[in-house]
Amino acid sequence: MSERESYKVLISNGCGEIVEKKSRFIANAFPVENQQQADEKIAEISKKYWDARHNCYAFVIGKNSENTRCSDNGEPSGTAGKPILEVIKGAGLTNTLVIVTRYFGGVLLGTGGLVRAYTQAAQAGIADARIGEMVYSQKLTLEVAYNMVNNVQYFLGQNNITIADARYEANVQFDICVKEADVKRITDGLTQKCEGQISIIEGDKGYFRQ
Questions:
Q1: Could you report the per-residue pLDDT of 69-96, keeping only the tens digit for each?
Q2: Are 23 and 109 part of one and the same domain?
């Protein structure tokens, strides 16, 4: 398959804070879809924490993590932005922005101390967020009579497939997302489980949250 099978993203914001030798490090983690969104969040945080000494950041964007950027924002080169970027990459995340705000506490931390502090702060910000997985899948719409609903639900439960939407009309329709490699196995299994009394419409392929 030419497409990457899956990638991890944030599905909620996160915020964490650490204190190192009286300096406060506040990390805000955001899901972002593109560089414009990242730039807007960076401007928003810089305005919110206008009185802080530094607002350092890093982001990774794109399903193949093709767009990355980091900034030390006045800290010694390589002591802030790069450690934040490494935390994002280490978590296997993309479409993720982490901004770490530092309020200087009057004690110099040294190069190693800064790297550790920015790393720990970024980890705390991401730990406070929720992480989801985007999987390359195909949408399927299942249509059955009411007497087959239990069969469908049982089969989907056995295969750990979540129903994204359900519509109860003359018949019942369920929307599901199935990994591309599993489509034939799932459609064959549903057909057998419902004794052929099921209509399966194949929809779009793309990345859907699991």
A1: 999 999 999 999 999 999 999 999 999 9
A2: yes
